[in-house]
Amino acid sequence: MTATAVKLGTLYGVGVGPGDPELITVKAYRMLQECPVIAYPKKRMGAKSYALEIVELYVDVAEKEMLGLVFPMTRDQATLDREWNKTVELCWQQLMAGKDIAFVTEGDPNLYSTFIHMARLMQEKHPEAPVRSVPGISSVLGAAARLDLPLADGDEQVAIVPANGDKEAMRQALQSHDAIVFIKVAKVLDLMIELLEELGLTDKASVVTKVTSPYELIWRDVRELKGRELEYLTLMVVRK
User: Fold this and answer.
1) Which of 33, 53, 73, 174 is the most exposed place for a label (fewest CB within 10 A)?
2) Which has the higher per-residue pLDDT, 158 or 72?
3) Alpha-carbon distance 136 to 84, whole Å?
4) Name one GO molecular function term (predicted).
5) What's the whole-model pTM score?
6) pLDDT tens-place string over residues 27-71
């Protein structure tokens, strides 16, 4: 590197918590202040993500370079590859200019987060790019707090499971752990309620949508939710 070469910026995955703006760490706050570029999920329909709403409370976005990134909700691999490559290159251009990026994410950047794929692709395509993460409070822990429910104590086991239509796999998860947090549960809610009824666990389950945020909803009797359609950001906690 020559004396005039620009030092690469660092890509930071910054967890800003599950929705409550006060559930942000001091370090995450500092990164938002110090990074000249803030990358955030940009929704096509114009609605703001939680992450962006939280950022706007703590920084003057007029003083930052705001990098809105679109993450397509599709299973078409060609579309995914094209859009993800475009997103990585947008960030790479900023890093090459010597600018640090705070890539903000709801919850924690290393737990079922968009940042995981971003970091992996950046390191594959540009291995010289420095990539770091700043942990945040996940929706799992936010739900435990809002439900006043300890997830595990002593030798108890807790599992975090993406809910899906494999009923036997979901049954196994329920039978094998003392507490289970099913994320992305909205799409298979009726199946999960049916399974809870079969196992006699309906009174041990609660459902939370958009936990800790101003839009939070809590159901402690999951049977009320039969046939209902809930938001994507919905999880179920089962504590035996």
Assistant:
1) 73
2) 158
3) 24
4) cobalt-factor II C20-methyltransferase activity
5) 0.91
6) 999 999 999 999 998 866 556 777 899 999 999 999 999 999 888
Q: How far apart are CA 54 and CA 181, in angstroms?
A: 25
Q: 17: how many CB neighbours lie within 10 A of its CB? A: 26
Nearest to 19 by CA among 184, 210, 183: 210
CB 42 within 8 A of CB 90: no
Q: How far is CA 66 from CA 97, 126, 153, in A?
A: 15, 22, 42
Among 228, 208, 108, residue whose Cα is nearest residue 149:
208
Of 81, 74, 76, 29, the C-alpha closest to 55 is: 29
CA distance 117 to 80: 11
Cβ pair 180, 158 in contact under 8 A:
yes
Q: Which residues, other chains included, contact 168 with Cβ-Cβ below 8 Å and sequence gap of 6+?
A: none
- The SS3 assignment for 126 reads coil
The alpha carbon torsion through 161, 165, 168, 170 (nearest 10 deg) reads: 20
DSSP of 5-34: PPPPP-EEEEE-BSS-TT---HHHHHHHHH
The phi and psi torsions of 196 (rounded to 5 degrees) equal -60, -40
| Rounded distance between C-alpha atoms, residue 226 and residue 222, angstroms | 8
**DSSP states of 136-161 as a string?**
---HHHHHHHHTT-----TT--EEEE
